[in-house]
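Justification of computing resources. Each target in the renewal requires a structure prediction run like the one illustrated here; the chain below, 306 residues long, is used simply to show the kind of job we budget for.
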Amino acid sequence: MSRLILTALLFLTTLPAAVPGLAGVFGDGDPDNGPEDDRRSISVGGYPPPAADWYRGTGTLVCDGAVRGSASLLDVSALAPDLAGVVLATAAHVLYDLEQGRPWSECRFAFMGLAELPGFSAPLIRSHQLLGGFRPAAMPSDPQQGSGDWAFFWLGPDWEPPPPWFGFPPGRLPGGALTDSRHESLGLVAWDQTKGEVSVIHACQGVNSIATDIGGGAWSGQLLDDCDSDPGASGGGVIVHDGARSHLFAIRGGAHWDPELWPQTQFPDGPPPGTAWSPNSFTNYARALDDSILNTLARWLNSLPR
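Resulting structure tokens:
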């Protein structure tokens, strides 16, 4: 997201806004003890199963020569049992140069972010894409931008990443809505721009956005969470483990913050790392997979050539 766009947003409206592409690293709000970034990169690892295995279900999108965001591999066997190859889930805004308001010229998927290794990447196929209603020219303050910020790609019948790899089945939180602040099975797998590697975080806090928080409940399926993220995490997978399997629950979009507390002139990239998470003033957000998206996904998968 360009600073020009953010400037226009924050001076034209005092309302908190969904800012795609930017996201936060949270702490306890004490600047003296530094940011508490709980992400663990692929070269370090350290989380116990199942989070330790999540690296093998993710990758990056490299567009016009740079990492623009993240993507999750999907297990679509329940929706399209006879479809061969790999299906990806990501955020639609990752596919655009938001400063120019146009798509990147060329994008590739890199399994586990390892684009330099032979056989680890494949091109995205424009004829095999399903995009939400995200509009790159619209103002980020448009509440429906977050609702449509999703995309799926089929990479064709012949390419698969080197084993071992797996896909996350799309799913929902056990029991339905997320109402508790702390959810031990909630996490994120995505690119960590700071370390230059895919990373995992789990045991995040999260709530469904309602009318009285900073997200305003502006669209269905808006998850507010504190899974540490930076710009390369856009499109990454918010994962829930239900005791048997890990499911893709939502797609990382960006961040909300209160511009009166953190004015753009002083905080052009949002609140500083280590700021305390609050659904009322500063939070990351993601687009949960609801019935509307899943039904659209199922129809699209079954329309693809076999």
